[in-house]
User: Fold this.
Amino acid sequence: MIDRDEAHRIAAREIVARGLGTGVRSLYAFDEIPGRRSSLYGVALGASWIAYADGPITGPRPSDIVVISRATGEVIYSGSAHDEG
Assistant:
């Protein structure tokens, strides 16, 4: 089981490597996410850590996220959270 600290380290590396931002703005278990939650087809968000990328705010746009399996630490998604609106 991957704890919050390990998920933060994994997400920070992935965010920088993929050019999504400069680091982790926030990290949540799915049921902890305040506001509008992401909906990604085919991604098991309930069993994952969701890390929001920290980067420049350039106007209204979706968040960039990294989704990490809580069981294995595998990055199962990185990109748009589709949470605009």
Summary: The chain has a mean pLDDT of 88. The two ends are 34 Å apart (CA to CA). The longest helix spans residues 4-17. The helical segments are 4-17.
